[in-house]
Amino acid sequence: MPAYNPGALVLYHAKCATITAVNKEKIEIRIEGGDTKSVRPKDIEFLHPGPVRSLPPAVLPTPDAQELAALMEGETLPFGDFAELVYGTRSPEAFYSAWLLLQSGVYFTGSVETGVSARAPEEIESALAAIREKEAKQLRRAELLERIRNGALLPEDLPAMREIEQVALGETASSRLLRELGIEAVPPKAHELLLKLGVWDLFVDPWPARMGVELAAPAIELGALPAESRTDLTHLVALAIDDEGSSDPDDAISYEDGLLWVHVADPAALVTPGSPADDEAMNRGENLYLPEKIVPMLPPEATELFGLGLQPESPALSFAIRIAEDGAATLEKMVLSTVRVERLTYDGAAARWEESPLRELRPMLDRFKARRKADGALLIDLPEVKIKVENREVKITPVGITPQRELVANAMLAAGSAVAKYAVEHEIPLPFATQVPPEPEDDSAAAGTGVAAMFALRRSCPPSVVCTLAAPHAGLGLDCYARVTSPLRRYGDLLAHQQLRRVIKGEEPLTAEYLEERLTVSEREALTRRRLERQANEFWTQVFLAQQPEYRTEAIPVLRQDERLTYLIPELAYEFKNRFGGKITLGLPLAVQLIRSDPAAGSASFRIL
Q1: pLDDT for the residue numbered 248
Q2: How do beta strands 552-561 and 393-399 pair?
Q3: What values do phi and psi take at 436, rounded to 5?
Q4: What's phi and psi for 98, nearest 5 deg?
Q5: Segment 337-346, tens digit of pLDDT
Q6: Domain 546-608: homologous superfamily in CATH
Q7: I need a surface site. Which of 69, 159, 379, 551 has the fewest CB within 10 A?
Q8: Strands 27-31 and 432-434: what pairing?
Q9: Domain definitions of the chain by residue range
Q10: Residue 221: pLDDT above 70?
Q11: Which residues contact 167 (CB under 8 A, 6 or more apart)?
Q12: 225: how many CB neighbours lie within 10 A of its CB?
């Protein structure tokens, strides 16, 4: 029976302790570090009767343990005899040091109660090999950390950087390497380190992975076009007008007998409700337009088959719209058609501005625009740009509002307005786009002029909503509106086409409940993609600036919030904040110079000159 007397050395949860008092049922102990505790005898392991001078006791130098193991020759010694054999004394320090030697598990096995015996030579060698490997691994780890701190990675270090990349890409929220380096495991910090180490360069965009968006095109076969009756409209001059380099033309315009014809690509001919391609498109919501690539919601085959002007003749869903003298747009015909389309850039359209059909369409669409304006349309004119990344170069090109762009935009709006009114009149469920009127934040927000006023107006606009309940779209100045001109690009438009095709064929319409169910999924996914597009544009703008450390330009102060001002750089369509304390008038341009651009942090700072 152990001598549970005051001053004895015991172990409590693998920590040294000494007995300070013995009661009837409990033992009072003081643990290394100074804490005291009342325990039961079974909670502690007796080691030495004491008295103990310090906690923990001093650790004695160990003789050649391998020689001692050979000396024991398989004999099992009581723990006290083992301690005396190793250290030549039966002191508390010897017993504690012997216990530590036993706990290491390399040369000896056993316990304080059962005694100690030497391990077999092959077991000892195996344990020593494991220790050597562990020490080598720790050394390699320490050397890796040192190379990371010094920014001097070796090629063999790159696999270890994968865990930091996972943090930068938002795939995991922890990293042992970052923890050991004392760096917070958040995407911007990991991204910054990868740039510093040269593992990544400026042209690695982490945002698609962070937002979990698929970058591969759908791999679904669509099959052959069905045999169905189509109206031959190949006699019409049909122009698909778009930006240079556009790869998915899905609308074109014509004129005949006082009517605006809007021809729209007809992927719904093959992407039928509930088909695999339809489900995939719903789960994507819309095309993803990144500066570095375009990711379609439909298989690439759909654009090849249905893109207007990509083949000598194209299947289409065509709307004939009459624009009345008061500017109202009314749908007069809606047919499945075959059209022959010529593709034009906006500059090409400008060169043919006085030719048919643009010559005839201009006054019609001017009337339509004037009516929208009279009905409260918000004609917001703020800088826009196109950002493209090609051959490791970021190109940012301003996009101005031109008469040609306005004509095409109003033609598409006229189609959406006319189709929406037709659907309401005939009680046809459709995805309608609606928007409530803007609510200015305060009177001072619009106190600026020009761009500042437009900026305040845009901030006051609530987001539009797509649903099956028709309601006004305040921003467009339309009593009701349905997006029907981009079925290759937006799922809501494709869903509308699936419905309109059923109407044309005299089939049972899709129910409002079915449309709502599909829209709930597609609009959520579309919102994710729009957010990603904004983040990607922001990121590539930062890369553009990071490559031009001497960048100077003009910025327009557009918003004042407390001490901070928001500035807009028109040529980049880029916003930044600054606390410049000078007298600033909203809307008046100022010269600015780039101080620093940080793509990893997603911010740039400018000096007001």
Answers
A1: 87
A2: unpaired
A3: -80, 160
A4: -65, -40
A5: 999 999 999 9
A6: Nucleic acid-binding proteins (2.40.50.140)
A7: 159
A8: unpaired
A9: 9-122, 135-200, 231-540, 546-608
A10: yes
A11: 173, 174, 175, 178, 185, 186, 187, 189, 190
A12: 13
